Amino acid sequence: KQAEKAAHQKKEQSKTKCRKARRRHINLVAEFNRRQRKNIWLETHIWHAKRFHMVKKWGYCLGDSPTEKSYRACYRAMTKHCLLQDLSYYCCLELTGKENELLKQLARICSNDTGLTFEEACCLSGRFEGSLNLYRADRYPEDMLGPVTFIWKPRDGSENRQLWIWMHPALKQDILRELKAIFQCSEPEEIYIPEPVTTSMQEEKQMDVALSLGKKRKKEDKEGEKAVPVKKIIGDGTRDPFQSYSWISQATGIVISDRTMEILRYRLIGPLSHSVLTETLKAASLQTV
Known about the structure:
This is POP1 protein. By secondary structure, the chain is of the alpha+beta class.
């Protein structure tokens, strides 16, 4: 029996391709796309996957704890140098419309008693980021939705403004539902049409090649791998790719857009954070027509 088992294993190994073939770019891309069908990867996923224990939460694959004892190094970077964290899994909702109308309705879901509001002068100018707790409309101090941070786009001379609200993915659905209710944004915006997520024949062939690599292979469903419906992953889980990402109010003209995973977000901690930014980012030259 042992001889038969060894011969069977040797026969399976002979069918698998060498490591060089498995690590080809076309095979890696197809394999990575297949593995992101249920849990989306951040752009820093490969770096974290080599150094962290990964967990699957809120539709993401996130680094939970380091595989090595790097706590002292992180603490040293926070106190003396600079430490960077990838917060791109946080969800972003964009509000666009008249400033007066935005402030009028947003005042219903926050309170001056808790601190800053969306009307704070330093935040309204777009120079600083603000943070506050949101509540259900006209329900303060009950029915708290959760903490958020927000950034106003600086004024450009028009009465229309843009506001970005950042929140934890566990709070996104409740806050999005409340914002759509207070602004009466129930109809999908006709201008914003998401690209349908389709899988071409070439991509399907690449996925089939990637699935055939290696000895370990997940059990397919009864109808095969192609029977799994293609979904677009937006951070907090899968959703129909033909569903709109933007909603508009016919009464006020306010537009709510879901910008999750469209805007990357990083947090720099440490005394040299400003120096790192100034050395990394270069101001673009102004072009006047």
